[in-house]
Amino acid sequence: MNAMQPNYENLLRTSLLTKISELRVEVLSKDWTDDKMMRGGGMQYPYLSTDKILRNVSPLLSKHGVEMTIEYVNPTLTRDFGNMSAHWTVELIVTLWDTESGEHLSNHVFGEAADSLDKGLAKAQTYALKKWITSF
After folding, report:
1. Does the pLDDT value for residue 14 go beyond 80?
2. Helix, strand or coil for residue 25?
3. Contacts (Cβ under 8 Å, ≥6 apart) of 16
4. Residue 67 forms beta bridges with which residues?
5. What angle do CA 28, 91, 66 make, to 5 degrees?
6. CA–CA separation, 89 vs 107, rounded Å?
7. What's the CA gap between 27 and 22, in Å, rounded?
8. How far apart are CA 98 and CA 101, in angstroms?
9. Residues 6 or more apart from 75 whose CB is under 8 A from it?
10. Comparing C-alpha atoms, which of 50, 70, 56 is closest to residue 124?
11. At what angle do helices 50-63 and 120-135 cross, to 10 degrees?
12. Are 86 and 117 in contact (CB under 8 A)?
């Protein structure tokens, strides 16, 4: 084996990945419905807020000895997108840290939303976080 190639067998046995695997089971068993309702276009519909995501995930992270940092980078605004006033894209970088070993793992995901100027960026950030939760 080339010295520059990672040893995948050892990588899969790391403390952080073991914790993430255990954490995933609990995250996926959570009730992700939100008690908040959004009104739009004459309809009322449920939505999942960033607060709800963090309220559900944070205690589980602590329980498994994992900390999470969230960084939103490269927000990009495009005006006059279709019939909405603004289109936002943002990159989300989530890093999970093993509190015992200091080992960490980062993931990148992108979010986008079209809405009024005061809501578009927040919606893009929330979408990116939901996408990360459901993907990772």
Report:
1. no
2. helix
3. 66, 96, 97, 98, 101, 103, 104, 105
4. 97
5. 45
6. 17
7. 9
8. 6
9. 88, 89, 90, 121, 124
10. 50
11. 40
12. yes
Question: CA 103, 70, 135, 73: dihedral to nearest 10 degrees?
Answer: -120
So what's the pLDDT on residue 42?
Answer: 62
> How many other C-beta atoms lie within 10 A of the C-beta of residue 60?
17
* 3-class state of residue 43 by DSSP: strand
Beta-bridge partner residues of 40: 43
How many Å is the maximal CA-CA distance in the chain? 62
Instruction: Specify the residue for token string 């990009």.
Output: 76
- The band of 95, judged by pLDDT with boundaries at 50, 70 and 90, is very high
Strand partners, 68: 96
Q: Render pLDDT for 19-66 as a digit per residue (tens, 0 to 9).
A: 988 888 888 887 776 666 555 556 666 667 778 888 888 999 999 999
